[in-house]
Amino acid sequence: MSLTKASAIVLHSRKQGETSKILQLYSLEYGRISVMVKGSRGLKGKYWGTLEPLNHIAIIFYHKQNRDLYFVSQADLIDRFPGIHKQLGKLTLASIACEIVNRGEEKEHENRRLYYYLLQTLTALNVHESGLRNFLRAFILKYLALSGFTPNFGVCSICGKAPINTSCRFSLDKGAVICATCEPDAFIHCVDIHAPVLHFLHRLSINEIKSAGIRTVNRELGDEADRLLFLYLKYHIEHLDQMKSLDYLEKLKVLMTDSSD
Ligand SMILES: [Zn+2]
After folding, report:
1. Does residue 251 surpass a pLDDT of 60?
2. How much distance in Å is there from the Cα of 165 to the middle of ligand 1?
3. pLDDT per position as a tens digit, 49-86
4. Which domains are present in the chain?
5. How far does residue 197's CA lie from ligand 1's centre (Å)?
6. Distance 248 CA to ligand 1 centre (A)
7. Which residues contact 170 (CB under 8 A, 6 or more apart)?
8. 147 alpha carbon to ligand 1 midpoint, in Å?
């Protein structure tokens, strides 16, 4: 039995029997992995507070023959992101990022950039108090790019000009913009979108996640950007149709203050 070390973010946790848990982790070294942690539940449980969703941890684990699981032999907390847990809006945004990775990523498909993007998103949500939804938007744009579906919001895919009219169309199929003066007939599965939303998403897509919070957008355009991003994400990434945390985002829209947009 060989022991393996990894740094990981806890994406999801579920109970297993009376005292154990099965965790979904996204690790730097191995991508998404499932691990069993025995005797980890309850106040007296081993690793109490260490293995909660969103936590950044260091683990040592091993594999048992004929099981599709790894077993944790040691776990240490690196960061629990306390700022995220103090605010329901932050918690929801962080949970959506983790759920996208948990549902969208194949098991044991290593992608170090995805690990760092997720970590940057959690870190940004932990420390910032404004522009919060932009961090999730920026994360989704990076995730799409890593998955091979980089959307081009910058210029019309037909005439090559930056969209300046108020109303444009975006092809979910091609990930491309068609400005108001060009014919959209060549594209299928298009959605109407306002040019300022495209400019906003384009700026987010070419910058780092950590600087996403400084971009300002009003509530209406932000909602339109979210609608487009999630439509595009679900169109191309398998297993995201049933995302549970999105329901919370809908409920939160009426609760979140302007500063958390
Ligand atoms: Zn055009």
Report:
1. yes
2. 10
3. 899 999 999 999 998 877 778 999 999 999 999 999 99
4. 4-80 (2.40.50.140), 88-260 (1.20.1440.120)
5. 16
6. 37
7. 151, 153, 176, 177, 178, 190, 191, 193, 198, 228, 232
8. 26
